[in-house]
Specification:
CATH architecture: 3-Layer(aba) Sandwich
Number of helices: 7
Distance between the termini: 24 Å
Number of strands: 7
Number of domains: 1
Structural class: alpha/beta
CATH topology: Rossmann fold
Strand content: 15-25%
Radius of gyration: 17 Å
Strand order of the largest sheet: 2-1-3-4-5-7-6
Helix content: 25-40%
Shape: globular
Oligomer: single chain
Order of helices and strands: EHEEHEHEHEEHHH
CATH superfamily: Vaccinia Virus protein VP39
Length: 237
C-alpha cells in the first residue's frame, strides 16, 4: 500500500524522495514523467496518488488532518501558470493547462475521493466550471472554496481555490455540501495576520535561500489544505 507521486521538476522530485526516506510523507514512489505520459494501468495498486506533487504538501496535509496513509485518495495541484496574474494568462489555450490530462486518468481509474487546488484567478477563465462539469458527468459531487494562507496564521495572503470531489454517493446531498462550505468558511473567517510586503529573492547570509524559494514555488500550504480535508471528514459520516 504505497503512494504514487507525479512531479516533473527534478529538484522537487528529489525533495520528495528525501521526505519519503525520512518518513515525513507517505511511503511511495516518485515518477518524473509528464502526466501526459502516465497510463491508467500504471496507477493501479497505489493507495494514494498525488499529481503535480511539488514537495509533498498534500501528503503532509492529509496526515495533519488525520487521514491515514492507507486510506485511498487522489490529490492534485494543476499548474497555475496559465491563469496566474504573474503569467501571460493564456488560460485553457496554454500548453500547461493539464486538467484534461488529469481528468482522463480520473475517468478511467475512478478514485472515490479527490482533493485539488488552483489559483483563484482560474475561476474567471472557466477552469472551475470545466472541472465541475467533467467530474459531475462521472458521478462526483463537488465542493469548492477559496482560503488564504493567512487564515491559518501564515504571514502572507496566498489565496487559493480548494476543491474536493466525492464519488461515494453519500456526500452529494445538498445539506452535506452546505456543511462543508460552512466548515471551510469558518476556517476562512479566522482573522488575517499581518502579511509580509514581499519576499526577497536573495538575502545575504541566509543559507540556501534560493533553494528554499525554488521549493516553495512547487508547494501548497499544508495547514490550509488540512482544514479543507478536515471539513470534509467531519461531515462525511
Amino acid at each position: 500500500m504505497s503512494a504514487y507521486y507525479n512531479e516533473i521538476e527534478p529538484y522537487a522530485a528529489q525533495w520528495l524522495r528525501n521526505l519519503i526516506a525520512k518518513g515525513l510523507i507517505a511511503d511511495g514512489e516518485v515518477d518524473t514523467r509528464s502526466i501526459v505520459d502516465v497510463s491508467p494501468d500504471e496507477l493501479r495498486g497505489y493507495t494514494q496518488c498525488h499529481f503535480f506533487a511539488g514537495i509533498g504538501g498534500w501528503s503532509h496535509a492529509l496526515r495533519l488532518a488525520g487521514w491515514p496513509d492507507d486510506r485511498p485518495v487522489w490529490t492534485g495541484s494543476c499548474p497555475c501558470q496559465p491563469f496566474s496574474e504573474a503569467g501571460k494568462r493564456f488560460g485553457v489555450k496554454d500548453t500547461r493547462h493539464l486538467w484534461p490530462d488529469w481528468f482522463k486518468l480520473i475517468a478511467i481509474c475512478r478514485p472515490t475521493i479527490i482533493f485539488g487546488e488552483q489559483v483563484p484567478e482560474a475561476v474567471r477563465h472557466g477552469w472551475l466550471d470545466a472541472v465541475c462539469d467533467d467530474l459531475e458527468t462521472e458521478g462526483y459531487a463537488i465542493g469548492a472554496t477559496v482560503l488564504p494562507a493567512c487564515s491559518v496564521g501564515a504571514p502572507h495572503l496566498r489565496d487559493r481555490l480548494w476543491f474536493l470531489a466525492d464519488a461515494s454517493g453519500q456526500w452529494g446531498e445538498p445539506v452535506r455540501r452546505q456543511q462543508f462550505s460552512e466548515g471551510c468558511a469558518q476556517e476562512g473567517a479566522v482573522p488575517h495576520w499581518e502579511t509580509e510586503p514581499g519576499v526577497a529573492r536573495v538575502v545575504d547570509g541566509v543559507r540556501n535561500r534560493m533553494a528554499l524559494i525554488r521549493g516553495f514555488g512547487n508547494a501548497i500550504v499544508p495547514q490550509v489544505a488540512a482544514e479543507v480535508i478536515k471539513a470534509f471528514m467531519e461531515i462525511e459520516l
